[in-house]
Amino acid sequence: MPTTRAQPGAYEGDLGGGCWARLVPGFVSSHEQVMQTLLGTLPLRQEPITMFGKTHLTPRLTSWHGDPGCGYRYSGRGFEPLPWVPALAEIRDRLRETTGYAFNSVLANFYRDGTDAMGAHADDERELGPARDDIGIASVSLGARRRFLLRRKTGGDAVEYALGAGDLLVMGGRTQSEFKHWVPRTKKPVGPRMNLTYRVILPR
Ligand SMILES: O=C(O)CCC(=O)C(=O)O
Fold first, then answer.
1. How far, in Å, is the centroid of ligand 1 from the Cα of 197?
2. CA angle, corner 17, sides to 16 and 21, nearest 5?
3. What digits encode the pLDDT tens for the residues 9-38?
4. What predicted TM-score, i.e. pTM, was given to this entire model?
5. How far apart are CA 175 and CA 122, in angstroms?
6. CA 138 – CA 101 distance, rounded (Å)
7. For residue 125, what is the domain's CATH number?
8. Is residue 204 domain-resident?
9. Range of the domain at 181
10. Which ligand 1 atom sits closest to the C-alpha of 111?
């Protein structure tokens, strides 16, 4: 699959058509320590999800946190958030300042090794905001680097990042409407990685 590698270093990526992604390398400097704290705190587990009429367990561990009422539906299931824990709230506050988005929820994904993955999808559910044409997602990756690909729903080349080690990728504007993203499985030996995607959930 053809890919375009994202530039290293802080990077303002205009993807065209009101879509953009911005990479901030090493946003969380003590990323291994934060990951260990979160591993000891979050009730991470494999969730059953239903896709194309079949129910299976997610190939990664997850935990959903946020303000009360920030419920979220995906893959045919509704999730009510667990309360914030200090390490997640601390990063949320820095992200609010850095990006200007009023994040009120976060999904933690833990990839134990290269067999854990995330399939191609867009975070384009109706409850995400702050606006239909500006869905703000801040994705913070702790631990090992994994490939993260971003490609237009209509096809074409993918933009590829190697996200880990405290990197932050902010996606905004119409990116979720126009692009899909995914973290593929790998046969290469890779260490554990945790990804935190901060989101803005609109009130119901
Ligand atoms: O692990 C990642 O980098 C991607 C996570 C993701 O796509 C999501 O939570 O929607």
1. 6
2. 50
3. 445 588 989 999 999 999 999 999 999 999
4. 0.93
5. 9
6. 9
7. 2.60.120.590
8. no
9. 3-199
10. 1
